[in-house]
Write a structure and sequence with these properties.
alpha/beta, 23% strand, 12 strands, Universal_stress_UspA, 279 residues, 2 domains, Universal stress protein, Rossmann fold, ten-stranded mixed beta sheet, globular, single chain, UspA
Length: 279
């Protein structure tokens, strides 16, 4: 598989321009078309608001905010792709962001979304957007840290492996990165040998599969002991100077909230390098 269409989510967040710049660099590298998408949230009046002057004021405030957000997102996209020389287009949609973004991602090979910044001003973008999209769309999602990136992702890659369907999907989805990487570390944490899972030598089978794709791969077996698996992943990513983590994610929907597994929740909350997630 090759990345031929990359979709980047654009909102009014202060990190959008650097996110777009990362997506544009990837579009250059993979000779892909880059689409920027901004979703305008629909007006939702408070339940106890009466019709009349109060409603009119609320709607005017919504319109002003909506126009300002779209202008900021458009400017960030244009600045992020400036001088990159990539094929690009700008898209807008109206509605619930998680629903509209999921529809658009079905026609892309890779989706780029920003990590939630808890210190940022109030935003209309849900904190759980990356995992919500990854769980619903069937496409890999590259989550860019809100602190930005110091180098393009994909030079040294940490592939988290537990022999599950989700991990296999992440490995396959990340192949364009893995085949071009200078180094790929397959991280296996607390593996158990079994004929239906890791096999007699945990990590060996996936390393062999990757090697046949020309991937420069090594296997790192580790123990979480009393630590959270997510913290072990982040620690090893720092130890190896990783600039991209690839992992499968688990989760389920509880009403409208996405409830993630522990490791993926920890990594997405505390990441300092881009993370490619698949489900």
């Amino acid at each position: 598989m090759a990345y031929r269409t990359i979709l980047v989510h654009c909102d009014a967040d202060r990190t959008t321009q650097s996110r777009v710049a990362t997506a544009a660099e990837l579009a250059q590298r993979f000779k892909a078309h880059l689409a920027g998408l901004h979703v305008r949230a629909r007006f939702e009046a408070p339940v106890f608001t009466d019709a009349g002057a109060a409603m009119d004021l609320l709607y005017r405030a919504y319109e002003e905010r909506s126009k300002a957000d779209e202008a900021a997102a458009t400017a960030a996209f244009n600045q992020g792709i400036a001088h990159k020389g990539v094929s690009s287009e700008w898209r807008t949609a109206d509605g619930a962001i998680d629903q509209e973004l999921v529809v658009q991602t079905r026609y892309a090979d890779l989706v780029v979304i920003g990590q939630h910044d808890g210190a940022a001003p109030v935003t209309t973008t849900p904190a759980s957007l990356p995992e919500t999209v990854a769980m619903a769309t069937g496409r890999p999602v590259l989550v860019v840290p809100h602190i930005g990136v110091t180098k393009p992702p994909g030079g040294t890659v940490l592939l988290c492996w537990n022999a599950s369907r989700e991990a296999a999907r992440a490995a396959a989805d990340a192949l364009p990165f893995l085949t071009a990487a200078e180094k790929v570390i397959v991280l296996v944490i607390d593996p158990e040998s079994s004929p239906t899972g890791h096999g007699p030598e945990p990590g060996a089978d996936v390393a062999g599969w990757l090697a046949r794709h020309g991937v420069k791969v090594t296997v790192q077996r580790d123990s979480a002991a009393d630590s959270d698996v997510g913290n072990v992943i982040l620690s090893r990513a720092a130890d190896f100077g990783v600039d991209l983590i690839a992992m499968g994610i688990y989760g389920h929907s509880r009403l409208r909230e996405m409830v993630l597994g522990g490791a993926s929740r920890t990594v997405l909350a505390s990441m300092t390098a881009p993370v490619l997630i698949s489900h």
